[in-house]
Structure formats: C-alpha cells, structure tokens
Amino acid sequence: MTGNIGDQKFEFLYHIADAKFKAYGKTLKEAYENAATAMFNVMIDTSGLSMSESRDVEVRSPDIQGLLVEWLSELLYLFEVDGIIFSEFKINSIEKEEDGFLLKGKASGEPIDLLRHHFDTQVKAVTFHDLEVECDKTGRFCVQIVVDT
Q: Which residue in 105, 88, 86 sits closest to 44, CA to CA?
C-alpha cells in the first residue's frame, strides 16, 4: 500500500515463511481495523467486495497485545466457519475492564464464491511472533502482526 505515512493504512513487510504487516491508525481502534483489512488482503484483494453479510464480534484479553490477536483470530474463525470474506471493519469500543480489555466491533463482507473469488494465500493462524502495539509521540498508533500462512 502506498501513500504518506500519515494516511497509510497498512504495509506488508518481508518475512521468510509467513505474512508480516504493520497497520496504522489515528486511534487504537482504527489501527486494529486496518490490521484486519491487511490480514484479509494477504488472502485476497478485498477491493470491490459487497457488504451483504455482517457479523458482530466481541473478544476479551488480559492485555492489549493479546486483544489484537483475539480480534484477528475471531475474524479468521468467522471467515472459515461462516464462509465470509470480510473487507470492512468497525470497532465500536475497546474498554479497559478489571481483568483486561474488551473489544466490540463488526465485520462486513460477502459470502465466498469460488467461481468469482481467487485466493492468493491461506492464513492459518494469527501469531504472537514479532507482535507490537505502539503509540508514537504524535499519538498515532502502529501495530505489527505475523500471520501463519
């Protein structure tokens, strides 16, 4: 993905065996949304997909890094079980709870049609390898993820 770092949503990074990417956002929610977009674009070009199906997503984790893994893992699970290619993501809230964090969001896309959809790579799992969730001095968020392909 190209553009100024200020408006860049994500970029793919070199990894010898798997897929690695960074996603950016003005808020933590936006960075997590862009990470989901990047993960699905590892598998298929999501531009031009319809938003005919939606799923609500709610995940918890003891820490903010694990919350990113849980979010992406749940989306991957819904992709595999419900057969939906997601291309639009909206996180409604990320809340601090007594024992960790709660994320509530929604993913939208369209049912897989193998006659129309041509997959580049299969994402098998979201990993904790090289996982980063950071906020720079300007307040912009950056997350880094490696997915097992």
A: 86
| 12-25 confidence digits (pLDDT tens) | 998 888 999 999 99
The rounded percent of the chain whose pLDDT value lies above 70 is: 96
- Helix and strand element counts for the chain (H, E): 2, 8
**Structure token digits, residue 20:** 């690695």
Which CATH number goes with the domain that contains 111?
Answer: 3.55.10.10
Q: What is the pLDDT of residue 1?
A: 39
- Quote the number of domains for the chain: 1
Helix axes 64-82, 28-43, angle to 10 degrees: 40
Structural domain that includes position 90: 10-148
